[in-house]
Design brief:
With 339 residues, the chain is α/β, with parallel strands linked by helices. Helix content is 41%, strand content 17%. It has a seven-stranded parallel sheet, with helices on both faces. A three-stranded mixed sheet has the order 12-9-14. Strand 5, helix 6 (147-165) and strand 6 (170-176) form a beta-alpha-beta unit. It binds nicotinamide-adenine-dinucleotide (NAD). Residues 6-7, 9-13, 31-36, 58-60, 80-84, 99, 103, 122, 124, 176, 178-179, 198 line the site of nicotinamide-adenine-dinucleotide (NAD). Homodimer.
Length: 339
């Protein structure tokens, strides 16, 4: 079994590559390196002791994809490639729809041409919009307030239509909650190119001295301490969820479309995360209160029961471990892969 990882050089892709290789799978990485570094793949090779064939290509290039699928004898794809910054998606909607939606269409076309019908897709809890109840299960209505979220919803709808159109496809949509942390080796981790959009890499950059203080965006939410609550999930747990999803797909003989949450089921507030990171790095971290970010919600956490039932997967790592691993990565690589 050989799996193509589109966007496999990125944060979640590299962690998934390690877990797949360590579970005896062959992987090929296909990435345009628009938000990643070849050095990350080299480190995956060092950690696993295995060579990882890597193709520099864009998922909107059908010929490059067809070539990769046939030359490497690929039988399944995990589709990570995409742009992921909510704020940027508001100012650059055309780029987001082109990359995330058009990119997926071109990938599906290439897969169909090469008779590769097994796909795992990286979706997001953002497709639930403003929760009408918690915890969020997969039956919760979907909606979106920004182009990034809409791009994920559009792809989910496209995959549903593709599934209905023929009996060939076996498709798994994974809705991630908030992946944080890093590989316990400290050799790979999250390395945002610009100012981090997400809380954890921002905190880590403050801890390492790259930024002055953390901004807590809103302290008047209807939550226990007034700050936003999210379901933080160790990226290694998330990666292992992909191994389970892929192994399930590879054993399937018939068509299927499953949508599965990957989260811990537990929410943590911004202030709790800051405190946990302070414990991990052994220093106090300056933060200031700032206004809410438009579009942000008070609380969001998963009902992970379906992942347990269908994949036999539950998250293992707690917040302290997530922060300790993130700190190990950030302190050993203050400038990320560029250093
Ligand atoms: N990190 C999160 O918080 C989060 C949460 C929910 C969903 N997701 C989704 O998971 C996926 C992976 O996220 P990540 O955090 O690893 O992001 P990332 O930016 O680290 O990885 C994405 C990778 O895709 C590559 N890429 C982008 N456009 C491409 C294209 N057109 N062709 C080929 N490669 C391309 C980038 O170079 C990068 O290596 C994304 O689809 C993202 O939307 C991420």
């Amino acid at each position: 079994m050989k799996t193509l990882l589109t966007g496999g050089a990125g944060y979640i892709g590299t962690h998934t590559a390690i877990e797949l290789l360590q579970h005896g799978h062959d992987v090929v990485i296909f990435d345009n390196f628009s938000n990643s570094h070849l050095e990350a793949v080299r480190r995956v090779e060092t950690i696993t002791g295995q060579h990882v064939p890597t193709i520099q290509g864009d998922v909107r290039d059908q010929y490059a994809l067809t070539d990769a699928l046939t030359q490497h004898g690929i039988d399944s794809v995990v589709h990570f490639a995409g742009k992921k910054a909510v704020g940027e998606s508001v100012s650059q909607p055309i780029d987001y729809f082109d990359n995330n939606v058009n990119g997926t269409l071109v990938l599906l076309r290439a897969m169909q041409a090469c008779k590769v019908f097994k796909l795992v897709f990286s979706s997001s809890a953002t497709v639930y919009g403003t929760p009408s109840y918690l915890p969020l299960d997969e039956r919760h209505p979907t909606s979106s307030t920004n182009p990034y979220g809409r791009s994920k919803l559009m792809v989910e709808e496209i995959l549903a239509d593709v599934h209905h159109s023929s009996s060939n496809w076996a498709l798994t949509v994974l809705r991630y909650f908030n992946p944080i942390g890093a590989h316990p080796s400290g050799c790979i981790g999250e390395d945002p190119a610009d100012i981090p959009n997400n809380l954890l890499p921002y905190i880590a950059q403050v801890a390492v001295g790259r930024r002055e203080h953390i901004q807590v965006l809103g302290n008047d939410y209807d939550t226990p301490d007034g700050t936003g609550v999210r379901d933080y999930l160790h990226v290694v747990d998330l990666a292992r969820g992909h191994v389970k999803a892929l192994e399930r797909l590879q054993h399937l003989t018939g068509p299927e479309l499953q949508t599965i949450n990957l989260g811990t089921g537990q929410g943590h507030s911004v202030l709790e995360v800051i405190r946990a990171f302070e414990q991990a790095c052994g220093k106090s971290l300056p933060y200031i209160m700032a206004p809410r970010r438009p579009g942000d919600i008070a609380s969001c956490y998963a009902n992970p029961a379906r992942a347990q039932e269908l994949l036999g997967w539950t998250a293992e790592y707690d917040l302290a471990t997530m922060c300790a691993d993130a700190w190990r990565w950030q302190s050993a690589n203050p400038k990320g892969y560029r250093g």
